[in-house]
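Let's do one together. I've listed all components of the complex below, 367 residues spread over two lines.
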Amino acid sequence: MAMDRISNEAVLDEANTGNVRDYVALLKPRVMSLVVFTALVGMAVAPGHVNPVIGAAALLAIAVGAGAAGALNMWFDADIDRLMRRTAPRPIPAGRLAPGDALGFGLALAIGSVTFLGLVTNPLSAALLAFTIFFYVVIYTMWLKRSTPQNIVIGGAAGALPPVIGWAVVTNSVSIESLALFLIVFLWTPPHFWALSLYRSDDYARAGVPMLPVVSGAASTKLQILIYSVVLTVVAAVLPPALHFATPAYGIVAGLLGALFVYLAWTVYRMPASDTEMRPARRLFAYSMLYLFLLFAILLVEDGFGSIA
Amino acid sequence: MNATIEPGEGVRLTEAQLKRRRARSVAIALALFAFVAIFYVVTIAKIGGNIAMSGGGG
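Okay, and this is what the predicted structure of the assembly comes out as:
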């Protein structure tokens, strides 16, 4: 690992004083937007009330915390990011930023966002944000990602925690309802990422990352995607109405959206081994993002921003 | 040991690097101002809530 760090430094040219856009890229803005949205829904559906200013400040802290985790992930993963087409243009492997700058940036934002959230809301929310960053950076990035094909299954917990944090901002507690939101994102993560890793498996193989298609093969991955899709559909459609934080109408729409998810997973499952373009996998990956967005959007609309307005 | 750096010696940044440094400085300044503003607004929101809880400021 030490050698990798040194070689990262070695590829830096004289232009390693990155611009503002490079620092923004370190925060993984697309991941951040999903985190903010799911945390917002966690806040909105929680019982009780939070001042809109406090709510907005909490969302900002959660967003910055997620960004910090992204920056620390890019700092640690620069050696393998350089080997993969999707990640090679990132600021550190591309030589636009020094690894140490990304590390300092990420640590400062991580400490700052957790402290800020604790001051503005409550210690539980701050502790959950700190745990999320720790889990993503240490448990997922440093440990699981390079050691097990179950990396994104377990690591998905980090991405599933923001609605729990949002809920804790309002209620100062972790409840079964917020854990249901956690479970939806947790079950959504594997089929979402495995669809991507199916058509990027050569990238992961080159970088030595033991993603499921690399270790177990495409056929096994397709089956796992299908199984997770069915379980996700049932959980996402049944749990929120059963726990009374969504209406039966949500359950019906979630069931229909899930049916399309399962159908697309089925087309992936039926994809012949000779298919190198893997359009069904690309379609499932794209739809999976729309699916999660729509599920949480319905919860938000049904609740009418109840806890925040 | 005479390590005095004469004027014009040391690290010289290119025009592009200077431009990027200026942009970073502006971004840091804006972020700091935003941070101060957020703390101000959040403090008002929290104090306002507490005054309301205690039945008014009188």
